[in-house]
Amino acid sequence: MENIMTTLKELKKLIFSLKIRRKKSERNNTTTTIHLHGSNGFYIGLKLIFWRKRRRVFSFISAISGCLLLLLFSSVYFPPPTANNLFLPRHSSVRHVVNVREALEYNFEAMFQVPASGGNLGRDLWSWSQSTFYYGCSNASKTFQTANRKKLPDRYLLIATSGGLNQQRTGIIDAVVAAYILNATLVIPRLDQQSYWKDTSCFAEIFDVNWFISYLSRDVEIIKELPPKGGKAWIPRTIRVPRKCDPTCYETRVLPVLNRTQAVELTKFDYRLSNRLDTELQKLRCRVNYHALRFTDPILKMGKLLVERMKMKAKYFIALHLRFEPDMLAFSGCYYGGGDKERAELGAIRKRWKTLHASNPEKVRRNGKCPLTPEEVGLMLRALGFGSDVHIYVASGDVYGGEESLAPLKGLFPNFHSKQTIATKEELAQFSSFSGRMAALDYIVCDETDVFVANNNGNMARMLAGRRRYFGHKPTIRPNARKLYKLFLDRNNMTWEEFSSRVRTYQIGFMGEPNEMKPGKGEFHENPDSCLCQARGIETIEEKNRKDAVEMSDEYQSIEDPDWIDVDYLYKIEEVMSD
Q1: Side-chain half-sphere of 222: how many Cα atoms within 13 Å?
Q2: CA 444, CA 77: separation in Å to the nearest integer?
Q3: Model pTM?
Q4: What is the mean pLDDT of the chain?
Q5: Where, by residue number, does the polypeptide cross the bilayer (predicted)?
């Protein structure tokens, strides 16, 4: 640009110089000027001037032409910096993105054409050939002490869970194990009704409480409410144990208080039990999670109806947990190109989380800790072989950017559904005012789908990944966000064939195949290895593929903290979002 400005200045000087010299020529060549009169004389004089100054005039014309060609070349082949991430939604600057895309239309079409078909990859997209050789196994061994032999009288453990449905689910599971460790009777856990979701549902309105008590009766005695003491209601002593507290920690911190007061309530109970326990306690976790925790009949009935309607639309379908809501983006500290408006909106929400440090959006996204944009998810799925005819069920709250953000994904996959589009308002009326019950409906569909896609490694994603492993290793796709981020930045410099090939390579170890993760790696609810059994004599994956898969999965685990969600951040967000 500086070179262009310099050239223009020189042209201006040249024009001024030509004018001055013409005037001098008119004064000094009066004899010639007398004979140059009328139209013919003017023509001859003009011709004479051009002949004398022909070299400078030609230079002037050449310079102008060169500038125009340079501007045209730079507009086509050198897009402005804001065009580097065309697949990221711009929200407030969407018109600018559209204009940039139009300017780059020729180059884009020549280099990166997204096909409507997923192509023939020579493999089954909807199941794993080796998955039938694995099964869930969580029965207690003969050495496991039952409740009637282990429980001590007059010891009651109460639990106050926190967070959303799936975060509370982790607390309920660990509460049963904690009661077993403490030889205590468990009172049905109290659900969180104060956090962002403001869901007033109690345990019995989401889970089948009678089934829960009955199924676990051999493991832990469970009652619905704390009995009166001396004919009067009594208030238990409240304690908050540290994160990942192991059995010794419970015996040291909680048991003395429980012996003295007879009733203890553990508050904000999420991830308060160690991830690593002995096999018998891990199997107890699995019995609670995969068998005892069953949704109420109305939720199960509606959830199965949603699955049936999706199956009526297509033999196979994908369920996508998009997780592109404002709270998720703000917590992660990510930036998606929405300018000052996006920074102000998400920044205001992020201030509510006092424990969070100032974020470096570029570093966070580079490390793979940001959800993919809806369009990036669509491109990943197309590269993995899913064509535009595939039906997608989207489990999500209010997506940041609304329809503007979803439009590219819908363009890639027009058969786009949610519980609101396949069920009537009347059918959803009994659930729609309760975020936990609505989340339960999504949970059922995502569990029953042929392929589940998790766009982050949050509570619901981990819970469903583990459940789908336990019940037959159904395909569960987790984006390798660290590798895909770099690929999305560079996609306009490669063909679609090269792009899709790299996506498939990067996703090895992130597809839900057997043996993707080493035993003991990751959060137990995501990788319940103590509860997964394999048929004898079956070689499931070639050694090289197994090694590659495990190494890739380890990389994924190293960039995700199982305890990344702390309930403190969820309080009072609603006030900011309503402003």
Answers
A1: 24
A2: 48
A3: 0.75
A4: 80
A5: 57-78
